[in-house]
Amino acid sequence: MTAKIRLYVDHPLSEGQAVALTRDQAHYLFGVMRQTTGGLVLLFNGQNGEWRARIAEAGKRGGTLICETRTKPLQAPPDLWVLFAPIKKARTDFIVEKATEMGAARILPIHSAFTNSDRIRQDRLQAHAIEAAEQCGGTYVPEVTALQKLDQVLANWPTERHLMFCDEAEAGTTRRLDSAVPGSWAILIGPEGGFSETERTRLGALPQTHVVSLGPRILRADTAVVAALTIWQMQLGDWT
Ligand code: SAH
Question: pLDDT, tens digit, for every residue of 24-35?
Fold first, then answer.
């Protein structure tokens, strides 16, 4: 029998390792998915790859799995951050989910001049990233950082990290991503209101900035995240 269910666990994984389940995981595995003792599950923790584990104890409020063999090594994504301005809840959830599936290494919600939401539920967004990694076969979970001000992020911008600035003012121009620049990167997508002129000037003055157009139409922020990740992954990432 092959294991189909994949679970992220916050626990070291190695041969013979016993892994205790949380109440929620036990409910999901035994209550929802109807798994029983002896059944197989795939586990990953973002560090030790993917492991096949057997259910040793199944209870209402908990359970134990024992790791048997490693089924996949850790497959870390390319060194790519995704910076985005939170929009409406469902669309923000979508962005985190899609960025995880598409292979972002780190997800950074940012507050810019025209960002509407002042706070995010970082724990909820992190849970979405975990869920997305569980279903897409990933062995890595990107960290979702706390909401930070764009100004501050730019003031501390790492010297070595290129920034793919997707600017709606470039809609219809031919500014494309330069595929001859490997290394560490970040994608920046603005909110529904776009970027302010001050932000545009600031970004333009940063030597790491590469201004990019995402085609002739103005995309919604959630679409823009997926489009930008596709372009980057095809030209500089792990789709090449
Ligand atoms: N309200 C703005 C559009 C914001 S779209 C306006 O009408 O001008 C949300 C974000 O998606 C933008 O800030 C940008 O980062 C990205 N985006 C959307 N379409 C784009 C395009 N054609 N080129 C580059 N970036 C784009």
Answer: 999 999 999 999
